[in-house]
Amino acid sequence: QPCDMVNNSEKLYRAYLGELKSQITSTTKEPKLPLVAGCLKGLTALMVNFTKSMEEDPKTSQEIFDYALKSISPQTEFKRYAVLFAGLKLFARHAAQFSSCLMDNYRSVFEVMSKWCGHTNGEIKKTGYFALESFLKQVAILVAENAEVHKSKLKFFMHQFCSIIKTTESTNKELSIAIRGYGLFAAPCKVVCPNDVDFMYTELIQRCKQMYLTETDTEEDNVYQLPSFLDSIASVIFHLDRIPEVYTPVLERLLVVQIDSFPQYSQRMQPACCRSIIKIFVAMAGKGPVLWSFISTVVHQGVIRVCSKPVLLSEEEGVVQGGPNIRGEVQAAEAAQVRTGEWKVPSYRDYLDLFRSLLDCDKLKESGFLDGTFESQRAPLRSLNRLLYDELIKSILKIVEKLDLSVQKQNLDNEQGETDVSSLVLPSSDPTAHLLPNKPKDFTAFVNLVEFCSELLLWKHAEYFEQWVYPLGHELVLQSTRFPLVSGFYKLLSLSMKIAKKIKYFQGVSPKSFKADPQDPEKYACFALFAKFGKEVSVRMKQYKDELLASCLTFVLSLHHDIVALDIKAYIPALQTAFKLGLSHAPLASAALDALEEWSSFIPRSLIQPHYRDVLPYLDGYLKTATSNDEEQNNWEVMCLSSGTEKGYGKVLMRLLKKSKRLSMIEDSPSAIVRRRVVRLLGHLGGQLNRSLVTATSAEEMMKKFVAWDSQKRLNFAVPFADLKPVIYLDTFLPRITELALSTSDRQTKVAACELLHSVVVYMLGKGSQIPEGEKSTPPMYRLHKRIFPVLLHLACDVDQVTRQLFEPLVMQLIHWFTNNKKFESQDTVAILEAILDGVVDPVDSTLRDFCGQCIQEFLKWSIKQTTPQQQEKSPANTKSLFKRLYSLALHPNVFKRLGAALAFNSIYKQFREESALIKQFVFEALVIFVESLALAHSDEKSLGTLQQCSDAIDHLKRIIKHKAASLNEKSKRRVPRGFPLDKPVCLSDVVMWLLVQCGRPQTECRHKCMELLYEFVPLLPGKKSPAAWLEDILKKEAVGFLVSRFEGGGRGDEGSAGLLTQTTLKDLQGPFSLRATLQWMDLLLAALDCYNTFIGLHFIKPHQILEPEKESIFLKAIGFFISELSMQDISAAELCSSLGPKGSLFSPREREDYNYNKGTIIVRLLEFVTMVLDNCQQDFWKSLEMEILNVHFFELVATTVCEPSSIGFNMADVEVMTNLPEVCVCILKALVKSPYKDQLEYSIRKRVSYKSVDELCGLDLYNSEARSDHTRLGLVLSACKQLHRAGLLNSTLQSQDSSFGLSLGSKLLSVVYKGIAPGDEKKSLPSMDVGSRKLADGLLQLAFSLGGQSEQVVSLLL
Q: Do 1093 and 1169 contact (CB within 8 A), yes or no?
């Protein structure tokens, strides 16, 4: 211990120095080198606690210095380096104690040390560097203390360094000395000759540019110099008064090179690399706001470099986690890249340490990294830390916005390569099937970005994430709505959800407190956003499978428990699916357990308790999985087989493994951990609840198991033993065999059961074909077939490959066999057809749906194959069976049945279109059915895909009709579609007239499709007229009322009047108020509006022919009622229109949202309609509209939609509304400006955008965090000003209130933003605006610049 030496240290010094003196100064005998080295080592150690500086003991200090100097400058060449090493170590450690000695001998010391820095021995070289650095540090400090006296020394050093840096030939060793020297001598230089510092900066930057940024490839060794270059540049920047702007981009690029080459450094060198980057940031921080854009660029470019690395393929997953079907492409591209030469290509993971230490830069002060010059800079480190975090998130946002993650369908209908394509590409209910990325590189970058964020953000500075939860969440939801099939967005959303839960972001924000005026509108908006999107995803993912499904589930299960509590029923299926898939994918199982644990702890018992019985049975599978001992046994054997090749190696290994048995028990497999958690959870829930694990299966389910499949035993099999042949019946075993094949978790049992089942089915088929079939009776094996076919279909798309290979071909062969039936609706054929159709409409399993689609195709193909064309003309038995069933599914209220029908038709379309006989009979019938089906899909959840599949089916039929138009125009005997008169044959013109009626349907998608079909079919009719001419002919034959009844009759046509014709306004509705009836009326109004919009816009009809007030049309009256009574009010105005029933009922948020959405759609269509009328029609027609439409109420409506859209129910959080509404508004404003109604419009706008509200914009405080709730309101004012300016109305509106104001507005806005960016009074270091304010400032600037005339002011402010 040092304390024991206090009294003896002098003795020890004397002993060491005496020995050194006798050894080194002796002229007679050779010095004993180990002794000398030992003494020097002893002195180094002793001087740590018992210093001998020049101030304390000049004589001893001088003595030590002399010996040390002699030891490092020997006269002869040493064979051993111990003495040298000890001498250099002494200098490296204690240069500070030899202050003036160093100054006196500065030249000799510098030369000697420089020499050792270039030595071949690695250790000597390294120690030489340390020694030289502490020598230069000491000299720099002393020179700075008294610069005038030591001018000559400064000059000597600067001259040395400068010449090294300037000569391109100088070795790396010299370069690094010079670089360090520059950094250390920046301070004294500043004192003596400030201009030199600028010169040093330029020199360093120039040299770096030449070494790292020229085209030639950077040499390996040069990369290792970069951190010390940056270090010195940082030191120089500290002493610069102002940074020369011209070199900033070079410095940015240098830092990016440093970030990019980070993985090339060894583990020991990486911290130095991080420190040099942070030093530059800290140095720049001292120089004011120039830093923001600098850091922003560096971080952004750094993240881009990380993302552009090849995707890391994890061994166990073996797939790229990106989006639709990009696995193959990306893997192929990466396989070529992953290892080139001796370098392993870095992946995003190699950069995690760098970004972690950058985000932890405030912790660096402890590590002594900020030496002298940097001491003063401690304060900005915290805010630098915050700034780096914000820049990182900002650059993530920027990258996400810029990536093009769009995908394209593989071309399904290239007519030439028909034969080979149809075998590969099949219609599928899986939305990700047959998709290719447009830009595979963008997907690679995105995959990297997602993984990088997931590993970095969750553990680093979660507290800084608070202000980003909403902006980031909003952007991700927006992008995810655009590209719903990209799984990365769901992963990023679940990441932000996890961080939000960690920092308790949603505490106190629950729907119950919605009533109170919220203090923090952003949190409420965020809560609503996630609640709405979570629901959408839980519906949407019913379509998904594989990795996309897993990431959707992870997102839904990571939602905050208050969001789940709003509608727990919607989220239970997600939990069930996660537990089901979790059996084979442990991370999902643990996500599901996390969710269930959280829900059971925080959601009120009354809400969650009824759902346990639906969820807990899914946990049973985890408790059934094989026990760990067997697994471990297997692991050992496998390890033994896969290791060493030498003889006897395996035995030794086995012995060792058996020994380590006790140790390996400690590390559990993921499945064992999950199992233990399941048991704990069940214990925590308690006996009352967890018994539903067993009792949840209903009595009906149990009964099904106990009932025999057939009353007679039919499958007798004589076992061929040698001496006797006992007969056994296989019927009794079938239920158990199928159960094992479907659900056992032990693979050996499963495979055995599958093989047995396969043999039994083949045997059953043979047996059945031998028994003759009676005329009336059912086929012998029908009852068994009915039970077995669904099982075979499930097994044919099993996860296990062996099972699939057994049953896929078997199912296809069975279809071939049973389509060879002689009579219509043969029971066996019907059994297989119904099993397949049940599979197609399966609500859960999308693989089964797709496989059954293939089966239907096979069914039709072979039915056609096994009948003659004459038979098909007369009566195509199987095709009729199939179509009958498809029709009833297509019109079923259940969404999955309709989806299955459309999917089935899309599967058989290619077979169907080749058979003229079938087309002639079925094509119109199918078209009418699928148009009805599309109408039913109007209220389905969009993401389920019914709309998409139905539209595809109609498109296929449209193509067939266009192709076969000639034969379809002839009147011939064909099946009559629903709703057509039975007595006359149907041809294309009848269908076109029917479509004209359908154009008035209230269901939007169906209406649009019918308009499209009408437009394309009319030219195919005999006479080949254009739609406009065709309609004109009809109007000549019929009165105007004919078209009016089509457009306003709600798709009913002449069957008595309906639609708007009977219910012109809401007051005409019978009975008390019902929201449903109101929404239906709005749909009818929208339908009529749509029809007139389209038909007048395409010049098919002339508006004055139909819409003159004296005509039969009541459209204008209905629109007038809507504008005056409903458009500006909320849902209660609609309630007041009904004459009966109580008033003032409370409406749920969902009801209000639906009502407002419908109302908003009508307003937008109305604005488009008026724009079209003003642009395309005569002025005298405008006059006829003045009574109902172009009146005061309408101009008030336009003004409100522009200035305060949220007040009339537009949801400004909805992405579609925010982007499209301003465009529609600008068009109507421009049209009105040119019309005689401009003054009325201005009058209405002035009420809303007044001098006062614009003045508020000019007095905005961007920094005041209390004023944030005002920002939303001002954002709307700003948006209104932008729209008015684009329409050319802003100046005239404002000038009429104050003539000079409009002109000076631009400059006022400019100064507001300028004041906001640089608060002048106190120079805050690195102020960072929150995101909302930044967005607002951005908008203000855009408006200011678009007003024009600000160029001089901008220049003056910038200077």
A: yes
DSSP 1000: T
Q: How far is CA 205 from CA 233, 239, 919, in A?
A: 8, 15, 77
Could you give the angle at which helices 106-117 and 172-192 cross, rounded to 10 degrees? 150
Contact 290, 426 (CB under 8 A): no
The answer to whether 243 touches 234, Cβ cutoff 8 Å, is no
210 forms bridges with which residues in the sheet? none
Alpha carbon of 1080 to those of 38, 292, 382, 584: distances in Å?
99, 55, 59, 47
CB 1229 within 8 A of CB 1202: yes
Torsion sign (Cα): 105, 106, 107, 111: positive
What separation in angstroms does the CA of 1338 have from each of 468, 887, 1058, 1225? Answer: 18, 56, 52, 22
Give dist(CA 351, CA 356) in Å, integer: 9
Q: Which tokens is 850 given?
A: 């797709």
Q: How far is CA 257 from the centre of its chain?
A: 28
> Residues 1204, 1135: contact at Cβ < 8 Å?
no
**Is the model's pLDDT at 137 over the cut of 80?**
no
Both tokens assigned to 406? 């769009």
How far is residue 884's CA from residue 1239's CA, in Å, rounded to a whole number?
63
**Over the stretch 927-968, which tens digit does the pLDDT of each residue have?**
999 999 999 998 887 767 788 889 999 999 999 999 888 888
Q: What's the CA gap between 1064 and 1077, in Å, rounded? A: 13
570-587: average pLDDT: 85
| Burial category of 892 from C-beta neighbours within 10 Å (exposed 0-12, middle 13-18, buried 19 and up) | middle
Q: Contacts for 898-901 with beta carbons within 8 Å, 24 or more apart?
A: 898/933, 898/936, 898/937, 898/940, 898/946, 898/950, 899/429, 899/841, 899/849, 899/944, 899/945, 899/946, 899/949, 900/429, 900/837, 900/840, 900/841, 900/842, 900/849, 900/852, 901/840, 901/841, 901/933
Nearest to 788 by CA among 850, 819, 832: 832
Cα(121)–Cα(110) distance, integer angstroms: 19
**Burial class of residue 644, CB neighbours in 10 A (0-12, 13-18, 19+):** exposed
How does residue 326 score in pLDDT terms, banded at 50, 70 and 90? very low
b/e per residue 904-931 (b: at least 16 CB within 10 A)? bbbbbbbbbbebebbbbbbbbbbbbbbb
Distances (CA, A) of 1129 to 1064, 1122, 1208: 19, 10, 7
The dihedral of CA 710, 713, 717, 722: what is its sign? positive
* Beta strands at 716-718 and 727-729: parallel, antiparallel or unpaired: antiparallel
Residue 1327's φ and ψ, nearest 5 degrees, are -70, 140
Any idea which residue has 């000697």 for tokens? 112
> Which position has the higher pLDDT, 732 or 1143?
732
Identity at 1286, one-letter amino acid code: R
Q: How far apart are CA 106 and CA 143, in angstroms?
A: 12
Residue 435 phi, psi (nearest 5): -110, 145
Task: Kindly state the tokens that stand for 107.
Answer: 């030249």
List Cα–Cα distances, 1152 to 448, 534, 537, 1201, in angstroms: 42, 20, 22, 18
Q: How far is the first Cα of the chain from the last one, in angstroms, to the nearest whole number?
A: 63
Q: What is the pLDDT of residues 768-805, one digit of tens each?
A: 888 776 666 677 788 888 889 999 999 998 878 888 89
CA 63 to each of CA 27, 85, 125: distance values in angstroms, whole numbers, following the listed order: 18, 19, 26
> Which residues in 194-204 are b (16+ Cβ under 10 Å) and which e?
eebbbebbebb
Q: Is the pTM of this model over 0.85?
A: no
Tokens representing 7?
């009294």
Q: What are the contacts of 811-820 at 24+ separation with CB within 8 A?
A: 811/855, 812/855, 812/858, 814/761, 814/765, 814/789, 815/855, 815/858, 815/859, 815/862, 816/858, 816/862, 817/765, 819/859, 819/862, 819/863, 819/866, 819/878, 820/862, 820/866
Give dist(CA 202, CA 1355) in Å, integer.
27
Measured CA to CA, the distance from residue 209 to residue 35 in angstroms comes to 49
